[in-house]
Amino acid sequence: MKYRLGALPLSAAAPLVALLGLLMASLPLAGAGTELILIGLTAAGQLAWHLRHLMLSRLVTWPTLAWLAIALLSYQLPEAWVSQADWNRWEGRLMAGSHIDDWRPPLLMLLCLGLLNLSLLTRTRANLGAPLLMGTAGLALLAQLLAPHPTDGPLALSPDGPLLAAQACLLLAQLVDILGGWRTSRNSILRALWPSLLLATLTMGLWYHQHRDADRQQQQAIAELGQRLGQRLSDEIDDHLAAMRRFAASWRWQDAPPSADQWAYQAELYHQDFPYLLNIAFIDPRSRILHVHPANAYNTPLLGTRLFEAQPDGREALGKALHDGTIGQTRVIALLQGQPGMVHYLPVIQARDARILGAVGVVVGLRSMADTLFRQVAPDTAALTLLDGERLLAHQGTARRPGPWRHASPLTLDDLSLTLITRPGHDALLARRPRLPVVTLAAGLTLAYLLYLALFARRYMQLQHRQARRSNRELRREVRNRTRLQQEVEWLATHDELTRLPNRRRFLQVLAEHDRVRPLSVLLCDIDHFKLVNDRLGHLVGDRYLAELGRLGHAVLDAAGGVFARLGGEEFVACLPGSSAEDAEAVARRLQAALAESRLTHQDGAPVTLSVGVATLDEGPLVADELLQAADDALYRAKSLGRDRIERATSPADLPVGGP
Ligand SMILES: Nc1nc2c(ncn2[C@@H]2O[C@H](COP(=O)(O)OP(=O)(O)OP(=O)(O)O)[C@@H](O)[C@H]2O)c(=O)[nH]1
């Protein structure tokens, strides 16, 4: 919750930061309009999620993503599928006032933010690659910060500060929001994130490189176009000069200036080849215009005009032709027709006596000439401007949307230095733009995303396996413990812990197991004066004596094919299936002997002795209680007869069967 509290104001602040920033920096809102709207929608999606209006968040996030997807498709689809013109039409409807290529660069960032919103909604943030989306968004932000201004490339990244700040706010809000959530799976996320983020970084680097390369190629193409046009312009002037020289020379055999008809006929032939010539005039030696072609509303009033007076800028050039007999050429001057241009004056020299009959004036309207030339370039391709220094000579500016940069090619026409500015149109640039960078970006980022998903899933499965293995191990250990405990409980239920001999219950079971064996003897053994041992030597020694007797008894009875058990207290019992009373007595004696040999003594050094009651069932059914009672009776008798004795019961009545 505390993270959400931090994220909330950041999400809310993002669109405000963008809007205020743009207003304060007096940046045109129209240009940033689409991006501003997208930022607003993304922020609204985030905010709605933070405020728990999930439906609203969904309603905002999905259409925003759809919008972004359409924009993305604009440069993903091949031209053959959807033409640039079609996209432009759609784009005009979707984003009036701004152009798709203006906001393509932040598109990646906004797409990442939109997808992050989606991952918020689906609550599968780390699984859906949200960390990589964040990393990529961070890279896109960084790229926008570091990238140069768009003037150096048609699709360079937008550096609009307020919009960047808004994007950073949205990213930060996402970061703050998930910091707590990823704490537990941080290791898994990091392991998947680094390799995929590295791939994303390499992809973006490669994309940027290819992107700049494409820019350079386009700039070069435009430069070549400018140079080509410039070359054509200068070739054109050379051509018409050569033609005019021939034209001027064609009058040298005349004795007098040409007649109006002659002039109109001949000049028309040349004018057809060079329609941009505003006129072709014959000027007499006194600089008067004698004939002019074509005879139109601009030219006809010029007839009779004395050029030396009327056009001082051209006087020097005309003087060369009329006085020196050489070709004269004006600079770009204001023509009598009202537009800038140049005039070439070619002397008409009589062949016979080298008399200068006059001059041919060829008026080149640069605007007309450039227009003729510019018409060869499709208007949407580029805007073309012809400049003489700062002076605008001609312009063709029909490119619907001028691109972000222009190319200036210097033109040299004789001694004239002009500049041809070529400004390519956006649409033409986009249409010619190679798709490789975008394909690289899309493929690389998709791969990085898949890599993240694969690594994360692998790591997740590894953890699951590890967890399962650990659980299995614990389960096995638990089962072992429980089995051991169970066995212990079972053992304790049938054994005596101190002597580790079978207890009374087990003894009765053994007895029952041999209920068909005859003879069946039972020995009831009791340590004599054991109380004294306890009292004088202590209970611990008493316990040791009991354990020792248990060990001895087990050894003796085991050798005799019987079972030795502890009945309780210092009383022991033995079962000897198949042993007659004599045999049983002999075993009892062996037991007494073993005890004697063990040198268990009282405090005064007297040996610890054992009294034994023997009962044998030779025939008839076994009644355990009765048999034991008979043995007990015999034992009682042994005790009362002085202890350290063996007394035999006579079955079924308890009759002494003898003693030592
Ligand atoms: N150390 C120890 N003493 C036990 C245990 N079970 C019973 N005893 C003791 O065994 C003694 C049995 O004494 P009694 O049966 O009264 O008689 P006794 O001293 O053996 O004399 P007699 O049987 O008449 O020869 C008691 O002092 C009990 O406390 C045991 O598990 N450990």
UniProtKB/TrEMBL annotation:
| Broad class of where this protein is predominantly found | membrane
The record's annotation in InterPro entries points to: CHASE_dom (IPR006189), CHASE_sf (IPR042240), Diguanylate_Cyclase (IPR050469), GGDEF_dom (IPR000160), Nucleotide_cyclase (IPR029787), Rev_trsase/Diguanyl_cyclase (IPR043128)
- Gene3D superfamilies according to UniProt: 3.30.70.270, CHASE domain
Q: What is its EC number?
A: 2.7.7.65
User: Keywords on this record?
Assistant: Membrane, Transmembrane, Transmembrane helix
A single Pfam family, by name?
GGDEF
The parts of the chain that form a coiled coil are: none
Segments spanning the bilayer are: 35-52, 59-77, 103-121, 128-147, 163-182, 189-208, 436-457
Has the keyword rRNA processing been applied to this entry?
Answer: no
The family database entries (PROSITE patterns) matched by this protein are listed as: CHASE, GGDEF
Q: State the reactions this protein catalyses.
A: 2 GTP = 3',3'-c-di-GMP + 2 diphosphate
Q: Which domain of life is it from?
A: Bacteria
Question: Where is the protein situated, by its record's location annotation?
Answer: Membrane
Which residue numbers delimit the CHASE domain?
284-390
Question: Which segments constitute the GGDEF domain?
Answer: 518-651
Name the NCBIfam families for this protein.
Answer: GGDEF (TIGR00254)
The protein's name: diguanylate cyclase
What does the record give as the organism's lineage? Bacteria, Pseudomonadati, Pseudomonadota, Gammaproteobacteria, Oceanospirillales
